[in-house]
Amino acid sequence: MCGRFVMISGLEETVQRFNIARVSSSLSKSYNKAPGSAVAAAIQDDDGNRSLVDLYWGIPLFGTGTRGTVQTLINARSETVHRKPTFREAFKRRRCVVIADGYYEWQRRGGRRIPWYIPVAAPHPSGFAALYRRPSDGGTLPACVIVTTAANDLILPIHDRMPVILSGDQIDLWLEPSSTEPALLTLMAPRSPEGMDAWEVSTLVNSPAHDGPECIEPVKCPWAGRNGNTQLGKED
Prior knowledge:
5-stranded mixed β-barrel; mainly beta; hypothetical protein yedk fold; about 10% helix
């Protein structure tokens, strides 16, 4: 799954990278974006231009919880997103790209959950395939989910899922309203590990209250990788 990510790129480079024509997002930077917060996303408008907007990360499913609680979905599986009733309509008509510079994943090791930071491959910022829906039940922002797929060979020792990371022409295809379902499904594959990296970080990131550059600093351990030299730790 994808439960935390980093968005620290500036407005100018984001607008240029995603060919944005209109900006209505506050582009709130964060080293520790958590579900329930506003995330910046690129969407394709009806006139063919792109807007940078704020979306609420997490789609509430009212009536699904117990004792009055509400279940919130933050991810959608790429294998079923095009046919599952919850996401089928959004997959056809409301696709977006959540702006991101990297994300966190937790590795189970010796009964503990160890956080790792995975920067997306250059150029930055990149983006995650996502779906959104209109505000409902008094909400002020459209809600979104990030689409996930099977992990590539780099990420698999950490976790078996990863976000669908898009770049270049893939972004254009995902946002284009006329894209066919078979074409969109070709994007659901794991990102190539080439150019990606991963390193263990402090457990500070376990709390959304911690939101600074220290969240992505590598801890001192024999397998911490940087700049293409990743050596992932094995399970204890």
